[in-house]
Every structure is written in C-alpha cells, then in structure tokens.
From TrEMBL:
GO terms for cellular component: cytosol. GO terms for molecular function: IMP cyclohydrolase activity; phosphoribosylaminoimidazolecarboxamide formyltransferase activity. This is MGS-like domain-containing protein. It comes from Emiliania huxleyi (strain CCMP1516). Residues 1-139 form the MGS-like domain. Pfam families: MGS. InterPro entries: MGS-like_dom, MGS-like_dom_sf, PurH-like. Gene3D superfamilies: Methylglyoxal synthase-like domain. GO terms for biological process: 'de novo' IMP biosynthetic process. SMART domains: MGS.
Length: 151
C-alpha cells in the first residue's frame, strides 16, 4: 500500500490495520513519519525508488518504480513490485484561496503532479485509474472504514 496524505485523519488506524493484515507500507515524508511514530514499519518511497525526495519534498512519487507498480505494466522485467492500494489526498487549493492565504501559500497548495515535475497525487490517481481492475484508491479519510470492512 502506498500512503501519501496531507490529511492525517484516521491514518494511524488504517496503517495499523494494513500492517496487521501483512500489507507492506510504502510512504512519503510526513506520512511515513506519522506511521513510524505510531510504531509500525514503513518503507520510505525514496528508499524504494533509490532516489531522494527533491525540491523541499515536492518531488516524491514521480518515479517509474511507483507508476510502474501502479500501472502493472512490465513490472517483473524491471524489478518493480506491485502497488495495489493507494491512499492519497489532494491539496485543498480552493479552500486555501478561499480563506485568503497569501500567494506563496496558495502556490504551495497546488497539487499538479499530472505530467509535471511536482507533487504526484494526481499522477498516482491517473496511473491507478489506468489499472483500475487491480488498484484500489482512497482519497477521503472518512472512507478508510470501508477499506477495512472490505478487507
């Protein structure tokens, strides 16, 4: 499972459940830190890809090992593991603008990973959608309970 969320609501409970079910946890920055602090093993995406997070954490998941794992294409031939669960939030750009945040804060809340070298939330969603028969995606913490119930 790849977990990379800005909203940490319910994250620890979901990660604990997944860990107890034997699911390997793959994560980024603050999400990995939260999981680790709760006492669960988690592999950093940078460790998995062999490539460090860049640009103050803006480039994390835009890597062939992540998207190959989501797409399920030519994985074995390139030593890429399967990723079949993605827990990701998109940044709250509209809410950030609506509350009158300054320009720099608004810019930091643009989640434009789709095809651009920045945060990868939308890109992970697009890759997952292309392999929708094999990948489950959740972007809303209020739905973590459904994942737990289904598993």
């Amino acid at each position: 499972a790849l977990l990379s969320v800005s909203d940490k609501t319910g994250l620890v409970e979901l990660a604990k459940f997944l860990h107890e079910k034997g699911v390997e946890l793959l994560s980024t920055g603050g999400t990995a830190k939260t999981i680790r602090e709760a006492g669960m093993p988690v592999k950093d995406v940078s460790e998995y890809t062999g490539f460090p997070e860049m640009l103050d954490g803006r480039v994390k998941t835009l890597h062939p090992k992540v998207h190959g794992g989501l797409l399920g294409a030519a994985m074995a031939e390139h030593g890429i593991g399967n990723i079949d669960l993605v827990i990701v939030n998109l940044y709250a750009f509209e809410a950030t603008v609506a509350k009158g945040s300054n320009f720099e804060t608004c810019i930091e809340n643009i989640d434009i990973g789709a095809g651009l070298p920045w945060r990868g939330g939308p890109s992970m969603l697009r890759s997952s959608a292309k392999n929708h028969k094999a990948v489950t995606v959740c972007v809303d913490p209020s739905r973590y309970g459904e994942i737990i119930a289904d598993m």
